[in-house]
From TrEMBL:
This is Metallophosphatase family protein. Gene3D superfamilies: 3.60.21.10. Pfam families: Metallophos_2. GO terms for cellular component: cytoplasm. It comes from Kinneretia aquatilis. The lineage of its organism: Bacteria, Pseudomonadati, Pseudomonadota, Betaproteobacteria, Burkholderiales. Residues 1-209 form the Calcineurin-like phosphoesterase domain. GO terms for molecular function: phosphatase activity. InterPro entries: Ap4A_hydrolase (IPR050126), Calcineurin-like_PHP_lpxH (IPR024654), Metallo-depent_PP-like (IPR029052), Pesterase_MJ0912 (IPR011152). Belongs to the metallophosphoesterase superfamily. YfcE family.
Length: 247
């Protein structure tokens, strides 16, 4: 079974639609949606409806910090751009869409796979996995062989051996990576709707559960149209500009 791992869509309908089309062409049969479906971007309603549609067909979806903020209200620690986007997003979603977001779980375990937005050690705290230290803490917090999470907007892969030896690397696009059975693995597929690694193409990954293989994907999309929606909504210009720069 090929599972598309999609995270941090951030109300970017153009990127999400392009990734879904690409995933279907790769033979994907299931989806894991790793949170932050809203915030920053200009089309939250379409994105939430599409996520809900996929969940109704069996996909996994977990709550991100922006999803929680749109339902519960922004926190004092949010940057001004993020806070303004959260408030605007809340005003654009109907009660059913807000209820869908409010009922998302913080994490989901299926077989030997853990799906969570930020990390396994404190899903509700939304602490970032910024490097090997946080990745190892997350891997030690679960017995699952595979952990898939988002929150960080750059693709990354970490592993932990049975002897406690840790490793990490930045994956190359489209290269199939065998996930060896004597290790635990933590995958961050990168952001679908707001990549921050200098490449504006949408990020996602494909996990082949039968072959225990992983590949990271990049998909070009109409970022100009996504930026235009942000500007039309009256949201901060920086949120539009960063889409075009991948930052």
């Amino acid at each position: 079974m090929k599972i598309a791992l999609i995270s941090d869509i951030h109300s970017n309908a153009q990127a999400f639609a392009a990734v879904l089309e690409h995933a279907q062409a790769q033979g994907v049969s299931d989806y894991a949606l790793l949170g932050d479906f809203v915030g920053y971007g200009g089309d939250p309603a379409w994105v939430v409806d599409k996520v809900a549609e996929l969940v109704a067909r069996g996909a996994v979806a977990v709550m991100g910090n922006h999803d929680a903020a749109v339902v519960q209200g922004s926190s004092s620690t949010m940057r001004e751009d993020a806070r303004l986007a959260v408030e605007w997003t809340h005003s654009r979603l109907n009660p059913a869409q807000l209820e869908f977001l409010s009922k998302l779980p913080l994490s989901v375990t299926r077989e030997d796979r853990l799906y969570v937005h930020a990390n396994a050690f404190d899903p509700a705290g939304y602490e970032y996995i910024q490097g090997r230290l946080e990745a190892m803490r997350s891997l030690h917090a679960t017995e699952c062989r595979y952990t898939f999470c988002g929150h960080m907007h750059e693709p990354m892969l970490y592993h932990l051996s049975l002897t406690g030896k840790a490793g990490e690397f930045t994956p190359a696009e489209g290269v199939s990576i065998p996930l060896l059975p004597n290790r635990q693995w933590l995958t961050i597929p990168g952001s679908c709707g707001q990549p921050r690694d200098g490449n504006p193409a949408a990020c996602y990954a494909i996990f082949d559960s039968a072959a225990s293989e992983l590949s990271f994907q990049r998909v070009a999309y109409d970022a100009e149209a996504a930026a235009a929606q942000i500007r039309a909504a009256g949201l901060p210009e920086r949120l539009a500009a960063r889409l075009l720069q991948g930052e």
